[in-house]
Design brief:
It is built from 16 helices and 16 strands. By secondary structure, the protein is of the alpha/beta class.
Length: 471
């Protein structure tokens, strides 16, 4: 039997960032996708391609290994290295970490939720929306608060997912969770104000505070979240009148505040005139959900959330529930920043909610999350995960003293896995936990996730041997 001829393939590496071996693997992926390299094509030997590109044989070996890990090529002993069928790569297009487009990067730094299992539900809802006779009316200019019909759908969703009975007249629609956060905090602060936050806080909040000219004041936490006495002390010391917090499934620590601590926080807010901005974007994952601060203290709480984690981030559907005295101020902020909400995504969101499909999607997300949490804990082992709540979309992994978080993050990235160090969440000066956040749902395919977790497990087990840079 004749063996296939070896193609004289020379990759175009012009303008490709990153390590040379990864640039070669990415060029290989591009040529396969473009049809330049057909299935079954035998590639140059390691030595021949190294000679052609004037690089070491080791560089070509790493490039081929990376391409094989992505399913692009396969090696056969005694025969050579061959291009695999590109149809096998179709599923990779669904991978939100971009395994193919980003040269093999497995991105475990993005706290998204896997979307591909619900693509058909999204398509069906969009098609139904297109047939709605009042769609042109919904696409016209609206009040800054958003169309009443859409606010009523959000109220139904909050009742189902958060146990929060909200008056639609107190709901304002915003452009995603970040838009809701911006509206809420801008409405109750002025440049130069002190803003209380958990000592580890959401990076998007840090960016917003910089934009609004606010001084972040970190408040002490423990395994149950914010410490109420520390909140009162910080508020009095810094003259702060606003606190931003995430009481349920805190990002990144996963802590959930117990009921008595929530009630204590509300009592303090009423006593000293503190406004609470409660971010509940992960609350739908907790079953049953604990009572939000907005239930315990609706008069002192601005409740913000979105459908980015529970449904689809592209819907850009965020919302704020506010005490009535603050509604006009919030509407003014929304009018100045958005004029009127972008309703098309919100109409699709309302269709998913009203049809009951949103509830089913959230159930599927929780089931997939449970499976991934169990698998991740099997691969990584229990060490360092004490207190990390398996109900949320990420792991908060505390590291032993002999593994420095910045070293682990750097070496993991060299191996093609991106994770987030605790530094990214630090709200100010002071000791930072030796920990990393590992997101489990941003990579659509289980295979990609397990590859990344296997690499991390190896680095944690043998940190010194894994890289000469780790000393």
């Amino acid at each position: 039997m004749n063996q296939p001829a070896t193609i004289a393939w020379r990759p175009d590496l012009t303008g490709r960032p990153g390590p040379l071996y990864r640039a070669i693997a990415t060029a290989l992926a591009d040529d396969i996708a473009a049809g330049t390299l057909a299935p079954g094509t035998r590639l140059p030997t390691h030595r021949d391609l190294a000679w052609e590109l004037k690089v070491t044989v080791g560089t070509i070996t790493r490039a081929y290994q990376e391409a094989e890990r992505l399913g692009l090529i396969g090696g056969e002993v005694g025969r050579g290295t061959f291009v695999r069928d590109p149809k096998r790569l179709v599923d990779s297009a669904h991978d939100s970490a971009g395994l193919l487009a980003m040269g093999g990067l497995i991105d475990l730094s993005v706290n998204a939720t896997a979307l591909w299992p619900d693509a058909s539900a999204l398509s069906a809802a969009t098609m139904n929306v297109a047939q709605q006779p009042d769609l042109p009316l919904l696409m016209s200019y609206q009040t800054p608060m958003g169309h009443p019909r859409l606010r009523a759908s959000i109220a139904d969703w909050l009742d189902q997912s958060a146990g929060l009975e909200a008056d639609p007249d107190r709901i304002l629609l915003a452009a995603g969770g970040q838009g809701a956060m911006h509206a809420a905090i801008a409405a109750v602060t002025r440049p130069g104000d002190a803003l209380l936050v958990e000592q580890l806080t959401y990076p998007g909040l840090r960016s917003l505070a910089l934009h609004l000219g606010l001084r972040l004041i970190p408040v002490a936490m423990d395994g149950d979240g914010l410490i109420p006495d520390a909140v009162e002390q910080a508020a009095r010391s810094h003259g702060a009148h606003v606190l931003y917090c995430m009481p349920t499934l805190h990002n990144p620590t996963t802590a959930t505040m117990p009921l008595e601590r929530r009630q204590a926080l509300v009592d303090i807010a009423r006593r000293i005139g503190l406004t609470l901005v409660e971010d509940d974007v992960y609350g739908f994952l907790k079953s049953p959900p604990p009572p939000p601060l907005a239930v315990l203290g609706p008069d002192v709480t601005l409740y913000i959330s979105s459908l980015s984690k529970s449904l689809f981030p592209g819907l850009r559907t965020g919302y704020v529930i506010a005490p009535r005295p603050l509604l006009d101020r919030l509407a003014t902020v929304l009018r100045a920043s958005l004029l009127t909400p972008a309703h098309l995504g919100m109409v699709v969101a309302a269709e998913l909610i009203d049809s009951g499909e949103a509830t089913l999607i959230a159930q599927r997300r929780r089931q997939m999350l449970a499976e991934r949490q169990a698998r991740a804990r099997t691969i990584l082992g229990p060490a360092g995960l004490e207190g990390s709540d398996p109900a949320v979309t990420h792991l908060w992994r505390r590291l032993p003293d002999h593994i420095r978080r910045d070293d682990l993050v750097r070496v993991a990235l060299e191996r093609g896995v991106k994770i987030t160090p605790a530094d990214a969440f630090s709200a100010g000066k002071g000791e930072i936990a030796n920990a990393v956040r590992i997101c489990l749902m941003g990579v659509d395919k289980q295979e990609g996730l397990e590859q990344g977790l296997d690499i991390l497990a190896g680095l944690m087990e043998h940190p010194v041997a894994s890289s000469a840079a780790l000393v």
